[in-house]
Amino acid sequence: MVSSAALTKTEINRWYRAVLAIFFASGLLTASLLARLPDVATGLNLSPGPMGALLLGMTLGSFCAVTVSGILVSKLGSRTCLVLGYLVACCGISLVGLAVHLSTVALAVVGLVMQGLGTAVSNVAANVQGVSAERALGRFVTPIMHGFFSIGTVLGAGVGSLDTKLGVPFLWHMLYFAVVILAIVLFSLTRCHSENYGQDDTQALAAVGNYRVRDAWRDKHTILIGLFVLGMALAEGSANDWVALALTDDYGTNKTVGSLGYTMFVVAMMTGRLSGTWFLNRFGRVKVLRVTCSLAILGLAIFIFSPSLPLGFVGLFIWGVGASLGFPTGMSAASDDPLKSAVRVSVVSTIGYGAFLGGPPILGLLGEHFGIRNGLLAVLIFVALSLYLTRYLEPEKGTREHGAIYTETIPTIYPHTGEITIVPEPQSSSAEAEKPKRVD
Question: The CATH number of 9-409 is which of 1.20.1250.20, 3.10.290.10, 1.10.560.10, 3.90.1580.10?
Answer without folding.
Answer: 1.20.1250.20
